[in-house]
Design goal:
5-stranded antiparallel β-sheet; two-stranded antiparallel sheet; globular; DNA-binding
Length: about 270
DNA sequence: GCCCAGGAATGTA
DNA sequence: TACATTCATGGG
């Protein structure tokens, strides 16, 4: 399966901090687990991706996962030619980033874990959780583990979770999983909410604050207007925008702009 | 061994 | 509302 796109860079997506289970497994080669499936991708040219899936799997699963319906090319052109020089440089630098449509529950638990951890630590912690609580599968000789269901994590032992490195977030994880199992929060329905409403509901979970809620809304519910503010974005705002960044300038898609900025400040500066 | 990480809850004024 | 403190853990 071959895909052509001017805005599809595996390394940039894998290193953009939005996902934690997409790994470099060789030269220009990446592997990821989502929806209980394993996918390998190769960047065979700047605008060409090779995937080891069928046309049918691409149409039914991965095309949507990689948000192929959105015009990233047009957006990047507008940002690059816009009057904000920092955003222009950031969009030029990270033009291969796409906002993945990740599974809401995995995204919620992943970003709960992310607080006060660096990205390598987040990834290793999530992988341990998948190995311990997920289903073991195999694809063409490669073993992989799915992300556990809400039911499994809702019944997980707190001390056992701690042994996997989640630290004080153990109760946050089990509590969020239980809220999903009990129907106190319906993640798929939040996709139909506005971003503002979805963030408000997510923040009702113990251990979910403004930043994590916005990440879940952006990366798990695909509310691309969500704008997570972490230490890196704060740094950008204070050092390049005199302490105030006007999100309304990018009304409706500020989250994508945020990803270009985040990737740029962490990898170029 | 040290520093700090894609924060959030809690307490204080 | 605005800060200050505390919270486990591991990667670099």
């Amino acid at each position: 399966m071959i895909i052509q796109s001017d805005n599809f860079n595996l390394q940039q997506i894998a290193d953009s901090g939005q996902c934690f289970r997409m790994n470099n497994i060789g030269k220009n080669k990446y592997g990821l687990v989502a929806f209980g499936k394993y996918l390998e991708l190769i960047q065979i040219a700047t605008n060409t991706i090779q995937l080891n899936c069928t046309e049918q799997e691409w149409q039914e699963i991965w095309k949507d996962y990689f948000d192929m319906g959105y015009d990233y090319k047009g957006l990047v052109e507008n940002l690059v030619n816009g009057d904000d020089s920092f955003v222009s440089r950031a969009a030029t630098y990270g033009k291969g980033i796409r906002i993945l449509r990740q599974e809401p529950f995995e995204t919620l638990i992943s970003f709960i874990i992310s607080q006060r951890k660096n990205i390598p630590a987040i990834k290793s912690c999530i992988e341990k959780i998948c190995i311990n609580y997920g289903d073991k599968n195999e694809f063409e000789g490669t073993e992989y583990y799915s992300f556990p269901t809400p039911e499994i994590l809702a019944n997980a032992d707190l001390d056992a979770l701690r042994d996997l490195g989640v630290g004080y977030r153990d109760e946050y994880i089990v509590g969020a999983a239980r809220a999903v199992v009990d129907g106190d929060i319906q993640l798929d329905e939040l996709k139909e909410y506005t971003n503002e409403e979805a963030v408000k509901v997510l923040k009702g979970l113990y251990g979910v604050g403004d930043k994590v809620a916005n990440c879940v809304s952006l990366f798990g519910l695909h509310h691309i207007e969500a704008f997570p503010i972490d230490v890196w974005i704060e740094r950008i705002v204070s050092e390049h925008y005199n302490g105030y960044f006007n999100i309304s300038k990018y009304d409706g898609y500020a989250g994508i702009v945020q990803q270009y900025m985040f990737y740029y400040i962490r990898n170029y500066y």
